Fold:
Amino acid sequence: MINKFNSFILLGCILCITLSCQRHEEKYHNITDKINALSKAYEGTSISSEAYIHVPTIEITEGAETFLIPERKGQITSYACTECHTQPLKEMQSSSSSKKAHWDIKINHANQNTMECITCHNSSDMDNLKSLTGKSIDFNRSYQLCSQCHSGQFKDWKGGAHGKSAGGWSSPRAALTCVNCHNPHKPHIAPRWPVRYNTQKIKERD
Amino acid sequence: MSNTKKWFSLNLGNKKKEQSSSCGCGSTTGGCNSNNASAAIGEEKHKDGFDQVFDVKMDRRTAFKQLTASLMIGAGAVSTSCSVTSGDESKEKAQIDWEEQFKGNYKLMTDDEKKATVERLSRSYQLRTGKTVDISSRNAEEDVLFGYAFNISKCQGSMDCVNACVEENNQDRNSQMQYIRIHEMMDGQGFKFNEADDNYYHEVPAEGHFYMGTQCFHCDNPPCTKVCPVQATWQEEDGLVVIDYDWCIGCRYCMAACPYDGRRFNWTEPEIKEEKINKNQHYLGNRPRKKGVMEKCTFCVQRSREGQNPACVDACPTGARTFGNLLDPDSTIRWVLENKKVFRLKEELGTEPKFWYYMD
Structure:
């Protein structure tokens, strides 16, 4: 008799628990659980962001990430450099009376002990950049130059936590590269004024 | 009335369909009636269009209200449509007004009904202004859950996002309504919203300050949708919390329920210059609103469902804003969530916002 009674209580308990669980409509305890569970079966969406990439791009693969970045050489006004730099740099410098090229470039990047023109540019190969160890770097892949020192930013940029998207949120992924936002000769972003001021809000506050 | 019981018994699990028999009073007026009316609101899941309005049990007062409102429209429609003098256009306009008055809740519409209502709305806009708008009714895509990340160390408070948002989403220019707020906060003080300035005007970034933006966080457990008495706001399959502006009654319960100040109310008829109106619209997004309805950030549903980033993301000059699909393990938003130290605002409330903050 007691056994029967106990089993009734047990059955009741189980019934209560199952019923009370069923009353919750939400299947997941939090958003992280939901994301993890739902993304297991993820096979991609039909939405493409291709239409929102408005610049010519090149595909790069860095570590586990493959994405598009804007092509650079075509955007530099007077590329290729050797179209003007036909002679060695020494000889071009000597004619001091003529107009100077690149007069508007002032380097304000790290301090002068660390960086000067030839830290990145190669006087014997003007059409390419050069790494700290003297290896050639293509102008289209100038991020490889930046990442020599700015490794933290490089890691974040590869992942998507630094920098700006150049397309939409869906694939193909396109990201702006370092020099699309930072001037390599003066990489600090200057302070500016906000683009709006809400006069109405000031009135409402008074 | 043979199955009317004279004793009270618990109705566990086996839901009886007859609503009236469970009512003990036997009267057809008073409290029992209002119970019936509220039950009918739950039932309306299966009804749509005219049925939602006509085929519900309601008390006398509601019925009269509905009838008066409908009669006003109807009288207008009949007088124009039967009139010999009024042109075809005004007849068509009256027809559209009539059908719009009795359309159902967007949430419950079939795809055809959605298409029909956006067609009516864009036709009505064309009749009124002579200009064409492109209103979309695109549904949520499968395997998409939108999420957003905001880099506090990158935001410099230039407010480009605010401008882009206002222009994209056709917000009222007179009241300077904005979905995004950028708060200027003191370094070392943490988030102190009562001491923050969200309407600064000086060179930015200001010394000793940091900037953080707030907007609708599209919570996964949104308190705003639960308080809506007419179910005019809900969460879509892709995680967007949206509003049917035509179903909203403007009670502002949702505004009070939101712990993040994410919702805005149209106190006046929104006014935007015709040439400034963004013609690329979505029913749940930036189509023109009326006086007395709620609105808020929709993660630019008209853009995001097409694969584009929200306007604020594209406008940000510092790249502080990241948007993407939370279900895609290769998306940038997922990389941020998995590799940066992210947190959300008022996480302890259990609202599960899909808007994360992080720092470099």
